[in-house]
Amino acid sequence: MKSIQISLQLASSVKEFVSIVQKYAFDIDLRCDRYVVDAKSILGIFSLDLSKPINVEIHSEDCAELLKELKPFQV
């Protein structure tokens, strides 16, 4: 499992983020404090506190391409 921190403060950023992660077959979770949601769920993401950084947990070791695509969101 790999983990990075991202920021999703704009609705357009959330939409772009979800369109990126939906292309990948492995599980990806977002963790904010004690809440964990599926990164492929727009509604789940909007239930988080988006004013602070969010941890992305990628449940795959073969995720170099995804990490490249998520660079613009990294904190």
Q: Separation of termini?
A: 19 Å
Query: So what's the CATH class?
Result: Alpha Beta
Number of helical runs?
3
CATH topology descriptor = Histidine-containing Protein, Chain: A
Could you characterize what this model shows?
There is one protein chain. The chain is an alpha+beta fold and 75 residues long. The chain has a single domain (2-73), classed as Histidine-containing Protein, Chain: A (2-Layer Sandwich), CATH 3.30.1340. It is 29% helix and 25% strand. The protein is built from three helices and four strands; from the N terminus they run βαββαβα. It has helices spanning 11-21, 42-46, 64-69; strands at 2-6, 28-32, 35-38, 54-58. Strands 1-4-2-3 form a four-stranded antiparallel sheet, with no helix packed on it.
Secondary structure blueprint with pairings:
Blueprint: E1 2-6, H1 11-21, E2 28-32, E3 35-38, H2 42-46, E4 54-58, H3 64-69
Concise structural overview:
By secondary structure, the protein is α+β, with helices and mostly antiparallel strands.
Pick out its properties:
3 helices; alpha+beta; 4-stranded antiparallel sheet; 75 residues; Histidine-containing Protein, Chain: A; 4 strands
